[in-house]
Amino acid sequence: MEFLINFLMYFGFLFLVIIGLGQIIQQQKKEKINYLFIFSFWGQGLFVLLVSLYTSALYPELYRLIIILIPVAFLFTPLLIMRYIWLLSFRYIIKKKYFIMFLPAVLSFVYCIYGLFPSADAAAAGYIKPVVFTDPAFRGIPLYWKGIYVLMSGAKIYLSLSIAVMLVNYYRIWKKGRPFENTSILRVGYTFAFLMCMNVFISFIGDFLSIEFVRINMAIGNFFIYGVYIVSQRQTDYNRMVKIVIHQAKYAQSYIKGVDIDSVKDRLYEIMELEKAYADEDLSLKGIADELGVTTHQLSQILNEKIKKNFNTFVNEYRINEAKQLLVDEPGRSILSISVAAGFNSYVTFCTTFSKMAGMSPSQYRKENV
After folding, report:
1. Which residues of 137-159 are buried (b: 16+ CB within 10 A; e: fewer)?
2. What residues make up the domain containing 81?
3. Do 356 and 299 fall into the same domain?
4. pLDDT tens readout for residues 18-31
């Protein structure tokens, strides 16, 4: 039994490293998320290795490796969360708030540096051993090395809570996706993430109860990893399928169900083209929605799904076209006056928008067309 548990724990580490290497040697063109997959697989593998080393006590001479792996374990969490966020949000954007998620990895690295030096403690190798916080042996460990134990356990709760927050955020989308045929893909991915969250949390609880409990739980957790791999191999385009289901789920309970879309579109174009609503600098999504007799959600969805533009782009295209016409028809009129007539309440915004949409400044456009 002891051999089997150790085998399952260490094999989980090797398995994840091999998966990461397999992602590298694939010939197909890689998206940014593929590289994040690679690093998150390796990070997860090193996380498993960390728990395996300190709970099995098979290699006490590798205590420095355990210390090095602690910041790596904290680093794995934001990589995993970013992987899920990018996968489910369709956009590969690194936001400033993501950097905050790396702060625990930085702080743990600073704390762990001391333990890597030979001068830290001649008996250091004996301090990192399979004990729980409630074990009397833990009380005799020096304060600094107790901190190492706290960090190892902290990496677990950090990962567990981060996954939990992410799962709560996407629960509504997952439920909405149920009417679609491919939701089994999304449900499997969500379920595995939930099981990982629970597995890591139970491992954290085990740090207070029993090391054997932690080891068995980690060995079981590796089966979840194998399950994810099997699913991804059976569905080779797994990422794309998940994105499709998420996209469908966003509109599972459509705001425009029962709305006469064609009538709304016809009236919208009438308001913009005949009544020139865009010339009103205070024009808003709510104002137009009220005029059309629909909600802001309904109008936004019609614009995004049926017209393929968001509200700002839709309105600004009319405003820029009007400005182009005025620049040519009234060559003596100031550009500032034209920007106001077109519906812009800021000259800078007008110039920026005009340059973006027309590919040149208003003055350049006038020179070339008058």
Report:
1. eeeebeeebebbbebbbbbbebb
2. 2-250
3. no
4. 877 776 776 455 55
